[in-house]
Every structure is written in C-alpha cells, then in structure tokens.
Design goal:
four-stranded mixed β-sheet; globular
C-alpha cells in the first residue's frame, strides 16, 4: 500500500520547501485533541489545555473532526488555489486569506472529508450540487453524533458563514497559544526548509526526499514519488508544482495531500525521534505476523533470555528440528532473530532492541 505522485514533466523550480503557519496550527490542534499520538508533546498539550479559556475549549470541540483524525486539507488551502502553484503564506493571516480563494465546492468538500467520504484522489460531485450526495453526507454525519450533524448542516446551508467561523477560530487560537508556539517553531522550520532546498539544488530530488523520510522514495525512470503508507492513493503534479511542508509538531505523521485537482503536498515531521531507517509498512507487517504465532512467541521468550541452538529449542518445545527451523526462518526473515556460530554450533538469539521498538514502530506505521 502506498500513495503515488506522478511528477512527469515537473520542473525543478516548481518544487518548493516552505513552512505553513496554518498547517502548523492544524497540527497543533490535532496534538491537543489526540495527545496520545504525540507522546513528546504531552507536556506542552497539558500546559496549553490548562490555560485555555473555557469558551475557546468548547469551540475546539465544535468541529474537532476537522483535525482529530489527522487534519483537514482546509489547513493547507494554498494547495487548492487554481493554477496549482500557490505557496503558503508567510503569516497565519496570509494563509487564512488563501481560504477565500477556494471555491465553495472546494471548501465544503474538504470540510466534509471525514464526514461523507467523498472521492478523494478522483473527481466527484460536490455535496453542494447534488441532493443525493448531500443527503448521504448528512446521514453519515448524524451517525457520528449530533455535534457533527449540526456543523455539517450549517456548512451546507451557508459555506461563507463557516469560512468566517474558521477564520475567527484560528485567530483566537493564535492569540491564546499558537502565536507563542509559532515564534519558537518557525526558526526550526525555516532552517529545515533551507537545508532541504540546498539538497534539491545541489544533490537532486531523490536526496531531498530521502532526507524528508525513508518512507518517501523516487523512481526517476517512472517519474513517480512513492510514499509508504497504510493506504492507497494517487496524484499528479501535472502542470503545477510540488510542495514539501515541514512540521515541528507532526511526528509520527507523514501526510500526503493528494486531493483531486489540488497541488500535491508532502507534510513531513522534522526533529523526530525516529531512527535513521525505520521499517517499512511491509517489514512491520511481517514482524507483527511473525510474532502472532503462539509457537514463535514461546520461542522468542526463550531467545530473549539466552542463545539456543535449533536442537535445544526442539527439545524444550517437544518439536522436531525441521519444525523449529521453519519457525526460526520466519523470525529471521522478519529480522527479529540473529544467529552466530560458536564452533560447530549455530546459536539463535532474539534481537531485543528490534522487538522493543515494535511499540513505537507500530504507532508510527499506522499513523504515518
């Protein structure tokens, strides 16, 4: 599974690395709503939540489905501006002004993404234009609760009113907590953008993407970027550009905006605690599958404490050596077990470091 971006004909000057204040506000709201996704930010989230005005806290709950699951493309409106070459604003106010450049259909469809599951990578009919799509959107919103239904009804009845609501909400968040956070974060983001831009100019797109994340690869022959994610999607730069937008609050999320007709965006975390080469989704799946078998679990219990030969494991578990060898082969293929030779004996041992990482690897894999 992956998200693929066709970059056929993309000129180097149309690739831009640039921070976005509004995208970072979206990530801040997500971290406040789902602190469990961001263990390193729990102290900051607790401090912000404790200081929040109760009225603003209530408004944060009013439409939290726009940022709780991940966050809505409305936090990156620059990608939807016609021409597919608009850059994020230098300030939050500049980014908010770009919301006004989206059509009502674009605004509503992006806001309803987590409500009615409209086609994302392909074109579709807007809920503003089709009564059946509108009915389905409201039915699904109702299934998610009265709060989401009320918001969706207001959105479909009066999109400009919700634009004004979102703009004022962002301003109030900026005054309450985001301006202070942005004053610290923007320097790190600007430095990362300069570094990635230097890589683009001097070493090319493949090097820059590798620095963004090991989960992002470039097939130059096929003119395609592939992002290793638990989901399928596709996009194309076509006659537009490609944006790389760094976030200081985003780990472990590596997100790809691949909405039909919008400029593709890679929204990637900087300063994350990940190792240089985190496992791919395929590797993670292989490891979880390997550990799901009860016999292999018991074998791992022994190998975590000491090194054993195949014959010793067979005797302990009451199995034949070939049976144990088959289980060891699965564990070794998943890179969970190491082997070493001692004289004429081959010893197997669990790689405890790899297994210990599975908790954070699993989190990263499913949230990427």
């Amino acid at each position: 599974m992956s998200v693929r971006i066709d970059i056929t004909g993309l000129r180097p000057e149309r690739i831009t690395v640039v921070p976005s204040p509004l995208a970072e506000l979206g990530m801040a709201l997500h971290a406040l709503s789902e602190p469990g996704h961001h263990p390193g930010l729990q102290g900051w989230a607790t401090g912000v939540t404790a200081r929040l005005d109760s009225h603003l806290a209530d408004r944060m709950c009013e439409a939290d489905f726009l940022w709780r699951t991940t966050f809505s493309d409305l936090f990156m409106p620059f990608a939807g501006v016609p021409g597919r070459s608009t850059l994020p604003g230098a300030t939050l106010a500049d980014d908010l002004d770009l919301l006004d450049k989206l059509s009502d259909e674009q605004f509503v469809d992006a806001a309803l993404e987590f409500t009615c599951a409209l086609p994302y990578s392909t074109g579709g009919v807007s809920a503003l234009d089709d009564a059946e799509v509108r009915r389905r959107a409201l039915d699904l919103a109702a299934a998610r609760g009265p709060q989401q239904l009320r918001f969706s009804e207001r959105l479909l009845a009066d999109p400009p009113r919700i634009r004004d609501w979102l703009r004022q909400f962002a301003r109030d968040c900026d005054e309450a907590f985001f301006a202070e956070a942005w004053s610290r974060l923007r320097h790190q983001l600007a430095a990362d953008a300069r570094h990635k831009t230097d890589l683009l100019r001097h070493k090319g797109l493949a090097e820059a993407l590798a620095a963004v994340s090991p989960a992002v690869t470039l097939d130059e022959g096929a003119a395609r970027i592939t992002v290793d994610k638990l989901g399928d999607g596709r996009s194309a730069t076509a006659d537009g550009g490609l944006l790389l937008v760094p976030t200081s609050l985003g780990w472990p999320h590596l997100m790809v905006l691949h909405r039909y007709g919008w400029q593709p965006v890679l929204h990637y975390p900087v300063g994350s605690p990940e190792l240089a080469s985190p496992p791919s989704v395929e590797q993670l799946t292989m490891r979880m599958t390997a550990l799901s078998h009860p016999v292999r679990m018991r074998i791992c219990r022994y190998l975590a404490r000491s090194a054993y030969t195949t014959g010793e494991l067979a005797q302990v578990h009451g199995m034949t050596a070939p049976e144990i060898s088959r289980h060891l082969s699965v564990l070794k293929k998943a890179q969970l077990v190491t082997t070493r030779r001692r004289g004429r004996y081959v010893l197997h041992q669990l790689d405890v470091t790899v297994v210990a990482r599975l908790g954070s690897d699993f989190l990263e894999g499913i949230l990427r």
